DNA sequence: CTAGATGCTTAATCCAATCAAGCATCTATC
DNA sequence: GATAGATGCTTGATTGGATTAAGCATCTAG
């Protein structure tokens, strides 16, 4: 299990609650991924493939190097979860798509990752709206490392 | 940069807001760690060392294998950020402590990791209380992978 | 036609995580 | 006491993620 990313000594209740929530979210995600033989990175990449997309584009969206994507996609391809199609117009480029296997597996993963669903279900409609507003307001003005 | 752990296609506003928040939090943490030459795991471990603590205890708290801690601590020790003291009563055991260097560096890291502080500062006292209550309520009943 | 940009891959390196073994030490029991 | 098993930690091996530098093929602007 990955190590939790957050301070242990939060100075306020709010910081503590944020950390606890983030930690629970991350752990739930990792657990769900492992249940389906996926790493966190693999699950995340698989989840992005709702449409054909190039390697470069994928790397930009995920904020990491293209060579990183290369190896993640290779591992997914070996398991027949994705396929790399030639780009119709640009022979340098590949279009990545999920295979039916990949789509099925990802659906199963999402079913396992019930964290956000459960968390949402614990709140009334009004509370959900409140939470959304508060989270967005809290985010406002925080530094965004990569766009 | 690590890949974001979360679904891209969130089915509700609330899920989307949760993911955005978690993603921003994780990225801010990683960025702050990198600014001080620390990995996420290293920053996290360093943050736990507010008291003397054994390797076993550390591994349990972080929910990972003891051998994982061994190597993380070794890298921190090489940089004189932590020290491994013999346990007074049990010669198998080590007590890990931060060196003054480690304490200084971690303080600087925490200063850089302003995400939770800024996010909190964006909210009034009343809103903070609301957020804490909502986050805790949302967490209630979600599966807890490791206690 | 060519210089440079672009899309991707490969190889090398570092770190994190996990597993299986192993050593030293401790503890409970005989 | 002796010893069997538990405990604390380390080591080595393996897997995977992330980054960097280098390289190839292709595209595009001039």
From TrEMBL, chains A, B:
UniProt domain HTH marR-type: residue ranges: 11-140
UniProt cross-references to Pfam families, sorted A to Z: MarR
SMART domains the record matches: HTH_MARR
InterPro entries: HTH_MarR-typ (IPR000835), MarR/SlyA-like (IPR039422), WH-like_DNA-bd_sf (IPR036388), WH_DNA-bd_sf (IPR036390)
TM region(s), chain numbering: none
Gene3D superfamilies: Winged helix-like DNA-binding domain superfamily/Winged helix DNA-binding domain
Protein name: HTH marR-type domain-containing protein
């Amino acid at each position: 299990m990955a190590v939790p990313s957050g301070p242990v000594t939060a100075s306020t209740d709010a910081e503590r609650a944020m950390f606890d929530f983030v930690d629970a979210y991350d752990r739930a995600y990792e657990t769900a991924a492992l249940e389906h033989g996926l790493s966190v990175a693999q699950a995340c990449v698989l989840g992005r493939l709702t449409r054909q997309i190039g390697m470069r584009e994928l790397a930009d969206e995920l904020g990491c190097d293209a060579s990183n994507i290369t190896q993640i996609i290779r591992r997914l391809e070996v398991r027949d979860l994705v396929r790399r199609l030639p780009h119709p117009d640009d022979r340098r480029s590949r279009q990545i798509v999920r295979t039916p296997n990949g789509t099925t597996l990802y659906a199963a993963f999402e079913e396992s990752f019930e964290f956000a669903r459960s968390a949402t279900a614990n709140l009334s409609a009004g509370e959900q709206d409140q939470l959304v507003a508060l989270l967005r307001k809290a985010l406002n003005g925080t530094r965004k490392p990569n766009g």
